[in-house]
Design goal:
Oligomer: single chain
Distance between the termini: 31 Å
Helix content: 25-40%
Number of domains: 1
Shape: globular
CATH architecture: 3-Layer(aba) Sandwich
Number of helices: 8
Radius of gyration: 17 Å
């Protein structure tokens, strides 16, 4: 997963890390915790991101080009409930993303681009399964087969994710929305997911809250 996202980050001029990494480089990097190395963990740094939210009436009022507007199909936030479980982040993700997709009347298999909270390499595997992109225990196989690559069935973290794009905490979630907007506008350059129409942004905060936003190009 880290190799894929470093590769994606190398295509992103706004990424903190912009260098392709081999599997050997990732695995032999500076140890952080257990088997995790520095290149499997998000870097520490500053950052900023901004988006403009507007109604259809607002677009008309200010003379903005409605053809470039990306629709927010749903937006859901959930908090952790009492009675922690071993995979609380994945459970919270499953509930939150499930509610967002239901509200948007969208099936997981139709998602073209997914930005997930991959602060550590293992997280992408947990959250792609929790989001319903694949069955439990199969994400690693899909990853190896290129299903989650740019150009695959669903591009997962084409920005480089938190691993390569960076995780400055405050603006991270808004940065995901910016990436999805570029993808759905077909303006992402060399990291463009072909014919992207539906995007999902996923963010967890310190294990206690989860946000999911579904964006659609009409």
């Amino acid at each position: 997963m880290a190799v894929k996202n470093h590769r994606n980050g190398a295509r992103n001029a706004n990424a903190h890390r912009q260098k392709d990494r081999t599997l050997e480089e990732v695995l032999r990097g500076k140890p952080v915790s257990g088997t995790l190395t520095a290149l499997q963990c998000c870097p520490v740094g500053e950052g900023a991101a901004a988006v403009i939210l507007s109604s259809e009436e607002g677009l008309r009022r200010y003379g903005l080009d409605a053809s470039r507007a990306i629709r927010i199909a749903s937006s859901v936030a959930r908090s952790e409930r009492p009675g922690n479980v071993a995979d609380k982040d994945a459970t919270l993700t499953r509930e939150t993303v499930g509610a967002a997709l239901t509200d948007a009347q969208i099936e997981p298999r139709t998602i073209d681009v997914l930005e997930v909270h991959d602060a550590f390499a293992i997280e992408e595997l947990l959250y792609t399964e929790a989001a319903g992109l694949c069955a439990e225990g199969t994400a690693i196989h899909h990853l190896k087969e290129g299903v989650f690559d740019i150009g695959g069935r669903c591009a997962v973290s084409p920005s480089g994710g938190l691993i390569a794009m960076g995780h400055p905490i405050g603006p991270t979630g808004v940065g995901q929305i910016a990436e999805l907007t570029l993808q759905l506008r077909r303006e992402a350059g060399t990291r463009q997911q072909p014919n992207a129409r539906i995007g999902l942004a996923h963010m967890v905060g310190l294990g206690s809250v989860c946000y999911a936003h579904v964006l659609v190009r009409d």
